[in-house]
Amino acid sequence: MSKKTRKKSSNTTGKRVATKVARAAGASTGKSATKTRTTVAKKAAAKKATKAKAKTTTKTATGVQGKASHKAASKPLKPAPAATVTRSSSVTLAEGAAAPAFDLPRDGGGSVSLRDFAGKKLVLFFYPRADTPGCTREAIDFTRLKNEFVASGAEVVGISADTVKAQESFRDKHQLSLPLVSDPAHQMLEAYGAWGEKSMYGRTFMGIIRTTVLVDSSGKVARIWRHVKVDGHAEAVLEAARSL
User: Fold this and answer.
1) Which residues, 6+ apart, have CB-to-CB distance to 12 below 8 Å?
2) What is the DSSP secondary-structure string of 209-228?
3) What distances in angstroms separate CA 6 from CA 1, 16, 24, 81, one per listed residue?
4) One of 93, 130, 135, 188 is an active-site residue; which one?
5) pLDDT tens digit string along 122-168?
6) What is the spatial distance between Cα 78 and Cα 199, in angstroms, rounded to a whole number?
7) Which sequence ranges form a coiled-coil region, renumbered to this chain (predicted)?
């Protein structure tokens, strides 16, 4: 073989070896790059999944908390306790004293005065407020016994601080047949000792004390019932009226 031929053959072989080495290096580099891209993609997916899970957990917790708050707010309230009397009016009406005069408007128009009942026995029942449970029962009881009071020679009148319009609504709703007097200025209420200090929730205020006064035919106070309990009260007053 000539020197020229050996040189050419040597160059060709060298090129082939270099090409193989380059291909091998390229393949190795490609695999490495692919592996790197795969790893990065996996990390990104894991991070996204973690964020999504955290968001779902927060939303669920917020929803549960909202439901709990709504449930707590819808609990029924306890019924308010009735007001209690702590002190009577400064005016003290005693049995045997002359009944204080009055002249006040009533339901249906007109007015009612003490002189309208001269020579008759008179029952005055003072109630806190028209169309409330206790006051309604009391007014119905006196209405139910009206004829028996008349037979005993007594008339019955109801008094509160409600307006005439409120008294008329009260009368119509419960078919009451007794005169209902309106005393918004508390003049008669104070004169008969039915206005006093009351308390509720630790707060004191002035209000009507449920009271009944029986006046005899001479215009004198025969009996006084203070802090009245409604059940059976009308019957007790009727018995007292009969005994006069």
Assistant:
1) none
2) --EEEEE-TTSBEEEEEES-
3) 7, 16, 27, 122
4) 135
5) 999 999 999 999 999 999 999 999 999 999 999 999 999 999 999 99
6) 18
7) none
